[in-house]
Amino acid sequence: YKLADVDVERFTRKIVAAASRGPKASRPGSAYSLSKNFVIWYSQRQAAAFGAKGARILSVSPGSFDTAMGRLEEASGAGKLLDHAALKRFGRADEIAELLAFCASDRPGYLTGTDILCDGGTRADLTLKGMIAMARGA
């Protein structure tokens, strides 16, 4: 990702070239994982770059939410994540909206350069072994 800081065009060409050399069939979730990882990294970099100007930059990693997209994910197998959620339910749209409104307000004035995980405690419960088993469809 460091190249993205110095030469966006070259970074983009390298990403496209690497993707075209990749396997024709990819592992489910790999694109999401890569893109989410990049968003977190990019948010951290931008927070460092623009903090002196007063900008607060965050990323949010939502879990499973009771939305049309969330229900599609549930049908495709992502619903298994709810088995690991501490709260044992889908999040509600108003709950993530409240988080985003809080982050956009002046109240968290010292909060920047971090990712906020809002997943009902799912990641807290998942072990590496459990994540691997789930990725394999077990």
SSE order and pairing:
Elements: H1 2-6, H2 8-21, H3 30-50, E1 59-62, H4 68-75, H5 93-104, E2 115-118, H6 122-125, H7 128-135
Parallel strand pairs: 1-2
The residue fraction in helices comes out at 40-55%
CATH topology: the name is: Rossmann fold
Distance between the termini: 33 Å
**Radius of gyration in whole Å, from Cα?**
17 Å
Which structural category fits the helices and strands?
A: mainly alpha
CATH superfamily assignment? NAD(P)-binding Rossmann-like Domain
**Order of helical and strand elements:** HHHEHHEHH
Mean pLDDT: 84
- Proportion of residues in β-strands: 5-15%
How would you sum up the global shape?
A: flat
CATH class: Alpha Beta
Taking the sheet with the most strands, its summary is:
2 strands, parallel
- What low-confidence regions span 5 or more consecutive residues with pLDDT below 50? none
CATH architecture: 3-Layer(aba) Sandwich
How many domains, as an integer?
Answer: 1
